[in-house]
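Re: folding output
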Amino acid sequence: MHVSLTDKLDEYVRDKVASGLYNNASEVIREALRQKIATEQSDADKLRQLREALDPAWAQADAGACVPFDLTAILSELDQETAAHA
């Protein structure tokens, strides 16, 4: 496999190897890919959890069981909380 890197990425990889943290460029690239995979899995897990948390609310909205939304009351409550913490 051949991988082309930008000059900036190539310099980053070379710096990591020169630092002694890695024995060669392949180790740097493998570690970067492992971290990318972990991040993507974490993001997918977070999205799944968010969707699971929202599902009951969507079902409630679809059933017409929503509580009326009073923006003025919400903003007033936030103003009071802000003033209390000031």
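--- second protein (sequence, then structure) ---
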Amino acid sequence: MSNPREINVAILGGGMFFQDIIGQSFKDFAKGGISGALTSIGMSHLAPAVADVKINVVAIGTHSQKSGTAGKLVQWFKQDFPDSNIQARYGDTVWKDIFAQDKPDVLFVATPDHLHHQPILDALDAGCDVITEKPLCLTTDQADAIIAKAQEKQLIVSVDMHKRYDPFVREMLTNAEAKYGPINRIRAVLEEPLQVSTEVFAWAEKSNPFAYVGCHWLDVVHHYLKVKPLAVYATGQKNLLANWDKHHLEIAKRKNLDPTTFKRQHAIQTWDSLDVAVTYDHGMRGDYNNNWINPQEFEGAVNQEIEVYGIYGRGMVDQQDRGFRETVTGDGSRTRNPTFGGRVQHQGGNLELFGYGKASIVSGLLAVIRRRILGESYDSLNETYPTAASQRDVVRIIEAAGIVAEKNFQAMQNGQGAPVSANPTGNNIEIIEPYPPPPGTPGSFPL
């Protein structure tokens, strides 16, 4: 670190939320630090202590130099910071070049789901704190390795679990048990648009919709209600994406489009949707329903809702019912959610981001500043940001659900119903099957 009151950040990846949330947040931090955003995470009492800390982006790394994504994002930063010296880096293990040449204090990991764990581990070995996109990773073994190394190195690994900071969700879940009594059941839905799995993410086959967005609801339930999972049951559907080579033709016909213009025209071997039931201690049940095939014509960017059922009452947060609807010629009726990534720009002034998408990043960055600059201990910061350790049960359920859903899918194909579940409480995930799978069934299953 060149200056004792500076934090140098490198960003790995340039995905769909870069300019909307990640990059714009770091533009804001570069202009004015993080003290102005601390109210969103209930930490404004620390504003005087961190007001002069300068946040610098020193490098952006992406995989392919042919696409030039890192260079384009560097130029995007230069629109506001023409004198900046941000480096564009490329390569299969670009983060290693960043550590060697740019020496960041923090690595922000915004790579595909299945490519989080190795950059995180290498960053910790290089002495970097980490802020990573969700999910932390896809297997419990990966999570345990990250948690152990963060503890060993006494370095921050913060996960961008932004639903923790959604003011509607936070208000409901913070007060749920006081208002509604013991909680019997949670019902949570998060559905992503079809473009995500067919146009935006070339890596959709390496993950699934539950891992990609179900982790948000798992996190808020576990964080605010302090529950522990005892059993996992999951089923899923493979109707649209696994047959995309055929179904994209019908969608093109319905929309009067040329099917050859579709970015992906072949079968996409991943789940359309996953439905996961988790039984928690004290008998509480969580039902999580996730897909990434929501039609583009749906009124919102996503469909998300969470409902809490207690013995004395219930609460619900539905994104489409927050009150902001508009109808625009050529765009139809849409619901908007500025509480996630709203923008303020006064006449002649700077553009600035507000909302819980930014708040989640602030929580991790503040933990880094408190450790590196204010000298607070690693362990004392545990409850102030979404730690890697807080994600272990989230990852464990993601892994168990993927295995169970695949086994149940194969059982249904064989006319055996959907009898498989999992016990995630021991050292290993115990898969519970009432009878052995048919001869020739593979012994391992993808997430």
